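Standup notes, structure subgroup. Blocker cleared on the adenosine-5'-diphosphate input:
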Amino acid sequence: MPAPLIAVKNLEKIYKMGEVEVHALCGISFDIYKKDFLAIMGASGSGKSTFMNIIGCLDHPSRGDFFLDGVNVSTMNKNELAELRNKKIGFIFQSFNILPRTSAVENVELPLLYNSSVGNKERRERAYNALKRVGLADRANSLPNQLSGGQQQRVAIARALINEPVVMLADEPTGNLDSKTSYEIMEIFQQLNEKGSTIVIVTHEPDIAQFALGNIIFKDGKIISNHPVVNRKTASSELIKLNVPVKEQAAA
Amino acid sequence: MRILNLIKVASRSLGKNKMRTFLTMLGIIIGVASVIAMLAIGEGSKKNIQDSISSLGTNTIMIIPGAITHGGVHLEAGTSQTLKREDAEAIRMRCENVIYVSPVVQKGAQIIAGSQNWRSGVLGVFNDYFFIRNLSVETGNGFSESDDRAAAKVCVIGQTIVTNLFGENKNPVGQMIRVERIPYRIIGILEKKGQNSFGQDQDDVILAPFATVQKRMLSTTNVNMIIASAKSEELIEDAKNEVIQLIRERHKLTPEEEDDFTVRTQSDISNIFGSVSKVLTILLASIAGISLLVGGIGIMNIMLVSVTERTREIGIRLAVGAKGRDVLIQFMIESIFISFLGGFIGVGLGSLISGLVARFGGWPISVTPFSVLLAFVFSAVVGIFFGWYPARKAARLNPIEALRYE
Ligand SMILES: Nc1ncnc2c1ncn2[C@@H]1O[C@H](COP(=O)(O)OP(=O)(O)O)[C@@H](O)[C@H]1O
Ligand SMILES: [Mg+2]
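Run returned:
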């Protein structure tokens, strides 16, 4: 067995709200390997987002260790975490979180603006490339308000891709999208995973979880189940089954 | 490299929010424009006053009867009338550094010519007075020492007198005017001088030989003042000391006694007015400074509001790997850019206002490079100072909380 890409050991997160302490994570341990494609499920409030934020280097755990690419992240300071987010993580949010009044390509290149080793020309090239990979090459200069929800989420995926992260993390990426658009997004994730990306998503919808390779179920801050997906579905064939003309496919 | 990227980030952010950028800038524009305009007006009036003092003649020394009142300056003749014609003659004889000297007596009077009359005054002076005050006779002649000896009833008049008694552009040389029943023959007309910056009409004068005015119109041998010229500007202090020495001697003052007269040079006077206009400039500058401060607080307000409004944007930047420092620098660049561009526009606007004031208000103005520099430095400082707090606030945001902000 190769070394895990992400190793999490007895991870705990306690939120303090005045006198009250909320145990959002109560000792989570598990490993994520290269080329994994995991879907985390669980009831609302079970700690999924808290977990994603910690492995996305956006937050500190209260206790326990977290190794990313063999490096212990739990002891790092704010700036070191920012560096990791910039170089090794691609994060995708439910609410897209792309900059308003800013074109698709400028949104996509954003992480590289904070990476001084990438020059202007290379940055633009990589941004166009990333847009091409999510099928939005022709919308590079569109503003967010000219794009559909699915297209905005694809811009966000392209932005997560641009730094060639070791892992892509998506917290309910299809939560704001209709099912057809959700499938289109999952199709992109599947394609990326086939080309070698490691992906972790959070989802409420069992049919979305079926596109992943493994499912993890959270309950009250603990993992209650971790199992591979049987009868895995491919999003492209599900899209055909939906029997609607497959728009926005041509470019991809 | 990184800083270039941050400049790009900041300029994109400003460019995408033009209205916000403009509103933030407005405070600085108004502040800087008022600094420029007020300093220009202050400087201009100072220059104007200086010019009119210089027009008195840069070598001029004035000797006024009476001591300086305690602690203050008095420009009016004192109560103790101690100066005589002989003092002036002694100065002419014995002060080597003095080239011209003239006693001055003055008599306010109703001036009559035919059926016209005009309230003015007659000055009794030596013909040196013309040289001391740089007066030139445009038509006709000035008077001479023999006119003085004879107490001749002749006079030289200014343009205002001509206009009011004879009508505009008339040449009354040779005609008579009556000053308190004494008929004077007009022998010359002075070149037009206009108003000085104290608002006095310099053409409303009648000059007559000293002896004529003193003997025929006044019942005293005291003079209102003695006016003199030093040989050169460099010799003015020497001349002043000579004059003081001589008059003390003539008035038989013991070393313990204070001067019973006051000697003022042109530079003394310009110092007095210099300090007055300095006060004026400081006053104007502080008003302008306050408006700049208000502009700065305006920047801070809008930046603070925009930190709140842009919380999500900041969260996004932090999430993709911006460090707190990057956000800080971005916000600082934005506020410095705003204050610099605002300063630039403000300098333009301020110069325009100054120009308009000069043109329509008849105010003398001058925009100095110093005031431009001052306004720029000040606006930059304001931008940095007031940009710092909101920028730091933005930099300290937690990415998760920032992203959750609605
Ligand atoms: N910033 C926070 N402060 C206090 N409590 C929080 C905070 N974030 C999450 N929680 C709590 O932690 C628990 C887990 O939340 P979360 O990880 O968002 O769950 P999920 O994403 O699975 O719905 C919930 O009880 C939630 O109320
Ligand atoms: Mg959640």
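Discussed briefly. DSSP finds 13 helices and ten strands in chain B.
Next: hand off to the docking folks.
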